[in-house]
Design brief:
With 339 residues, the chain is an alpha/beta fold. The protein contains 12 helices and 14 strands. The chain has 2 domains: 9-227, P-loop containing nucleotide triphosphate hydrolases (Rossmann fold); 232-307, Alpha-Beta Plaits. Strands 6-7-8-3-9-10 form a 6-stranded mixed beta sheet, with helices on both faces.
């Protein structure tokens, strides 16, 4: 595919509300041709709404979206011709075979029958579905259905493939198969925009990433750039396997007073573990932490030490881990359903 100086995707100051609810408050990012671009954030962060606006399935309240220089609001049909979209929820007719589903998709795109047959064979081979193509979709596993959904999104040979949570709910072998497939796509020059709340997925696949929370981009760059900006080392300390909140709070206050400790967060998803950002001062910070806690009558149940991760980037940007944000979103949704 020829290189282009025009961004594959340009999103500027995107905003979208549903009544009084702000789904997207201010989202801007740019994707270069041939990149895998990741949008990372918890459920309810605005990822799906952003992708729906990009794919012209929703009209934004304000902002600008371009796909290879084509304004989405002014020429949505031309934009759709350049896009393939695979939604988070797989909705496939279980009565059809995989091949019949792809033929239906080809008809919707008005592909000539000989060309459609050629492309159907190609995408089935690409996604390892040739042997299952003439079986009913109702017999497929979740991973196979997701692969078939990806095949349908690729049938018209889009320049940009947009994926909303492409591996959510899949087992590990299926996730790994889709990751390998996305790497193959990148090698062919196809641009991929994917949303996810899996840190490992974005870290392994994305050339650049936007971290979104509450409808805003809080950080953007390559995974390594974002980790470098955070700086410091990461230490996780457990005072007990499942520490009471009061004990964790006391430990956080004690450790927060140490001069080399930059930040302490109580991680409820890890049994009220203490997540610390520290800077080395010539001595082993973990030994100093243990000694300081012991001097105040507290023992360390367990501890780990590591380089910054994307979760640390998210923590630095929002004040909570991605897992805690997921739990908070789940509790909020549960509260709404009870009402």
């Amino acid at each position: 595919m020829p290189m282009s100086s025009t961004p594959a995707v340009l999103v500027q100051q995107l905003q979208k509300r549903y009544g009084s609810t702000v789904a997207v408050a201010d989202v801007s990012f740019q994707v270069e041709p041939g990149q895998i671009y990741g949008i990372l954030g918890p459920n309810g962060a605005g990822k799906t709404t952003t992708l729906h606006c990009l794919c012209t399935l929703l009209r934004p309240d304000s902002g600008r979206i371009e796909v290879y220089g084509i304004p989405a609001s002014e020429n949505p049909k031309a934009v759709r011709e350049k896009l393939g979209f695979v939604a988070q929820e797989v909705a496939l007719d279980k009565v059809l075979t995989g091949r019949e589903l792809l033929q239906l998709q080809a008809d919707l795109y008005h592909l000539p029958r000989p060309l459609a047959q050629e492309r159907i064979a190609a995408v089935l081979e690409l996604l390892g579905l040739t042997d299952r193509a003439d079986q009913r979709i109702g017999t497929y596993s979740g991973g196979l259905r997701k692969r078939l959904d990806l095949a349908a999104g690729l049938l018209h040979q889009p320049q940009v493939l947009v994926l909303d949570e492409p591996t959510v709910g899949l087992d590990i072998p299926s996730r790994l198969a889709i990751w390998d497939f996305l790497r193959q796509l990148k090698n062919t020059g196809i641009t991929v925009v994917l949303s996810s709340h899996y840190l490992e997925e974005i870290d392994l696949l994305a050339d650049r990433v936007a971290i979104i929370d509450r409808g805003k981009v809080l950080a953007e760059g390559t995974p390594e750039e974002l980790k470098t900006r955070v700086g410091g080392e990461r230490i996780t300390v457990k005072l007990q396997e499942f520490a009471p909140a009061e004990l964790a709070q006391r430990g956080a206050q004690l450790l927060g007073s140490l001069p080399f400790v930059q930040k302490v967060v109580i991680n409820s998803a890890q049994g009220n573990a203490l997540n610390l950002v520290v800077q080395r001062n010539g001595e082993d910070p973990l030994s100093q932490i243990r000694a300081h806690l012991q001097a105040h009558g507290l023992e360390v149940f367990s501890s780990t030490q590591s380089r910054p991760s994307l979760d640390d980037v998210y923590l630095a940007a929002t004040g909570q881990t991605l897992m805690d944000a997921e739990l908070a979103a789940a509790e909020a949704n549960l509260g709404k359903k009870k009402k």
